[in-house]
Structure prediction request, 159 residues.
Amino acid sequence: MKPIPRDLEHRITYRVRPAHIVHRIFPGVAVFADKPPVMASGFLAALCEWPAMEALAPYLDRHEYCVGHRVSMEHLRPIEPGTALTAVAHLTIAVRRRSSWTVVVCDARQTVALAEVGLAVLQRQIPAVVGQQHQCLAPQQDRFQAGDLVLPEQVTQRP
Prediction:
């Protein structure tokens, strides 16, 4: 993984599709079926991860990828299909192979969601079949330790 600039920010735009409304998040599940045709919070959470993942992508080595491990989101207003959204992710904290991002999602008039997103950088796993069992061989993941917290103003270039 390459050093991450402390002022890292990324913006995406997206037009909400009919496929991302509430009753389509779990087709056939009654508690979702009778909701109004607005964007599902589950899809909005994924939209909040998207700009952070794209921001981090250029700093990953070819054998690495990132996944979301935490989303804390406020879905502030209903979002109808066809609405154009802009999501901006700002790096707030980087700790070894984990990062936290503040994400603001707006339509043309107002903020529709606020989120804190956590990403973890993982190494691609090499599957190995042992007898009838399937195992994945992967290096041990980094663990947080005392003193590991790095705030944006403390992020420096590392060799």
